[in-house]
Design goal:
Layout: H1 2-23, H2 26-49, H3 67-78, E1 83-86, H4 101-129, E2 132-139, H5 150-170, E3 175-182, H6 189-194, H7 208-211, H8 215-228, E4 232-235, H9 238-249, H10 251-270
Parallel strand pairs: 1-2, 2-3, 3-4
Helix pairs in contact: 3-4, 4-5, 9-10
Length: 271
Amino acid sequence: MVVAGEMDSNVTETESFWAILQEMDSVWVTTVLLVPCVVVLTAGFFYLYSTFPCKLVLLDFGDMDSMPEVISEIQECYGCMDILILNSSMKVKAPAHSVSLEMDKLLMDNNYFGPATLAKGLLPSMISRRTGHLLLVNSIQGKIAVPFRTSYAASKHAVQAFFDCLRAEVEEYGISVSTINYTFISPSASSENTAPASKSIWSLVYSRKPLGVSLDEAATEIIKTLSTKRKEVVIAPSLPKVAIYARSFFPNVFFAVMAAGVKNAAASENM
């Protein structure tokens, strides 16, 4: 009896509502019915497709003491971090005995400790949300080492190993870790034409003119990797890729080629 009474009451209220609408002017009826729908649809559209304003956070990997403050500032920008692209790099080309310890530390701060510290600082938020993507843009010297770049290659090997280990650790939380290894970013066309050609053997593995990566190619590969969530990408022509495999399967051959290249470069300079 009670349920029936409630149902009768609901029907009466519904019928009275429609009766009121019928008595109202058609313009007001249209306004009452459409305005809430328009408001809801507009809010939903802006929620789905609106973009957040860009924010710039100054970061100096040479000042590791400032990292906690920077990490807090990054998290306060939007409340969370979905994608982190690590693209820092500092390079020195010189014989190993001529590079100071201070320079070694500066290279390691910028190429290894900085990216690793930033990633570790932002990981707790990604883990709690069980989503996120870390992308390391690294040199091909995270895979192979070329003479006269000892400290640089050491830092690139270190950061490569860090993110390779991290990939397995955070997979259970739904976090993706990708690495992109490239030869180097190509200079402008004018610079390529005026650059002197190197006569060393190992310059074929690390030569600027024929084997560089354009800015467009690098940017396209970064976006593609973020979309497909590939774990590892090597952007390089065939010869550097062959050098990577030679280092793994024929190390003595690789070492001999590198040593011969150094001798050839020294002989060319003396001519």
